[in-house]
Design goal:
Largest sheet: none
Structural class: mainly alpha
Shape: elongated
Distance between the termini: 32 Å
Number of helices: 3
Number of strands: 0
Number of domains: 1
Order of helices and strands: HHH
Length: about 100
Amino acid sequence: MGVAVISFTIFRYSNANFFLMALAAGLTGALLGSFPGMAIGGLVGLIRKRSLPIAQDAIPEQLGVVLRAVVAPLVGGIGLIASYFLIFNPWLAALLG
């Protein structure tokens, strides 16, 4: 209920477009959360690999699975989050201020 009141107040008494603000916040959250989520999923998959059932005709995974499932998304996520806070946020603050 409180979110509805705040949303209505922002929409009614300011020139801000609440739909675009919510859309930008959702897009930013999705972009910043996707790579760390992939890294966490890869790490959980690697930890639980021995306890999961395996199909009889499954081929063994290659040796680079740790690099592709955990390290690459983690490095990408750290780079994306760092560039967001160190480059994009200051640029946006300078643009709006």
